[in-house]
């Protein structure tokens, strides 16, 4: 990212089709946007600079790492509060999605309310940045769902909502989920779909049961078994692009990011080390 005093205005947007959540990463050198409203809940974190905005009848200044919380139909604007400009990440959470995630019943007509529009909460800030990154890249739906669930957990204190009562641990649900992921290694699945497939009460019960049984989350387990399979195929001479498709990765670069993080070497380099066959890509034309 360029130095703050040289930034140009830029907005990048990504959307999760399953939840309807949108994520932006934006940077501005001066005026950002006029007073306006959204029908979604806005939760964001300032990444650098001074983020000056009007909300709830007063001007506010957010600095690096602070979180911004704006309710549906709450008027706000935005501009730089200093010469160096500012950058931030923001999630737009649909009202129905948030209510469902918080466990709001059909008879609850009133939305919850944020206690403040500006605050300090490093854990929630990290969750927002993690979810924005997950939506911006071609990640699995399980990973996206887990990242968004982390945002939900972080928002509960700001909305005055207690953690839901835990359902009893069910090791059978965890084992069925593990077997489902192993048997359908390349199949796309989200947290809600997996929970339904294995008979869990909901995705939150499944996540707790899976972590208790196996010490990790369903999405992390899915990545691990996909990487093990990919490593075997690459060692046998499989081309990285084909291996990525066979193992459920979105594309070769998606496989490459995870493979490098896990093993410290790219898929092409690992294949070459195992087989002596260079990865030159497809022939021209």
UniProtKB/TrEMBL annotation:
<dbReference type="Pfam" id="PF02311">
    <property type="entry name" value="AraC_binding"/>
</dbReference>
<feature type="domain" description="HTH araC/xylS-type">
    <location>
        <begin position="175"/>
        <end position="273"/>
    </location>
</feature>
<dbReference type="InterPro" id="IPR037923">
    <property type="entry name" value="HTH-like"/>
</dbReference>
<keyword id="KW-0804">Transcription</keyword>
<dbReference type="GO" id="GO:0043565">
    <property type="term" value="F:sequence-specific DNA binding"/>
</dbReference>
<dbReference type="GO" id="GO:0003700">
    <property type="term" value="F:DNA-binding transcription factor activity"/>
</dbReference>
<dbReference type="InterPro" id="IPR003313">
    <property type="entry name" value="AraC-bd"/>
</dbReference>
<dbReference type="InterPro" id="IPR018060">
    <property type="entry name" value="HTH_AraC"/>
</dbReference>
<keyword id="KW-0238">DNA-binding</keyword>
<protein>
    <submittedName>
        <fullName>AraC family transcriptional regulator</fullName>
    </submittedName>
</protein>
<dbReference type="Pfam" id="PF12833">
    <property type="entry name" value="HTH_18"/>
</dbReference>
<dbReference type="InterPro" id="IPR009057">
    <property type="entry name" value="Homeodomain-like_sf"/>
</dbReference>
<keyword id="KW-0805">Transcription regulation</keyword>
<dbReference type="InterPro" id="IPR050204">
    <property type="entry name" value="AraC_XylS_family_regulators"/>
</dbReference>
């Amino acid at each position: 990212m360029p130095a703050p005093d040289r930034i140009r205005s830029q907005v990048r947007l990504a959307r999760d089709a399953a939840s309807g959540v949108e994520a932006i990463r934006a940077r501005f050198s001066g005026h950002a946007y006029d007073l306006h409203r959204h029908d979604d809940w806005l939760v964001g974190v300032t990444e650098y600079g001074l983020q000056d905005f009007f909300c709830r009848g007063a001007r506010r200044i957010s600095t690096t790492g602070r979180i911004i919380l704006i309710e549906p139909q709450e008027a706000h604007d935005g501009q730089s509060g200093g010469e160096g400009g500012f950058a931030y990440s923001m999630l737009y959470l649909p009202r129905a999605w948030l209510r469902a995630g918080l466990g709001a019943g059909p008879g609850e007509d009133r939305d919850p309310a944020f206690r403040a529009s500006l605050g300090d909460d490093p854990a929630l800030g990290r969750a927002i940045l993690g979810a924005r990154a997950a939506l911006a890249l071609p990640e699995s739906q399980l990973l996206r769902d887990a990242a968004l669930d982390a945002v939900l957990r972080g928002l509960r204190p700001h909305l005055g909502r207690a953690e839901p009562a835990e359902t009893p641990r069910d090791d059978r649900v965890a084992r069925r989920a593990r077997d489902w992921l192993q048997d359908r290694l390349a199949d796309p699945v989200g947290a809600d779909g997996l929970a339904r497939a294995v008979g869990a009460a909901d995705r939150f019960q499944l996540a707790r049961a899976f972590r208790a049984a196996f010490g990790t989350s369903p999405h992390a387990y899915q990545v691990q078994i996909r990487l093990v399979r990919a490593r075997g195929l690459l060692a046998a001479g499989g081309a990285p692009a084909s291996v990525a498709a066979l193992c459920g990765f979105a594309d070769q670069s998606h496989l490459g990011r995870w493979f490098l993080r896990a093993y410290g070497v790219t898929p092409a380099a690992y294949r070459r080390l195992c087989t002596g066959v260079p990865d030159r890509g497809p022939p021209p034309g």
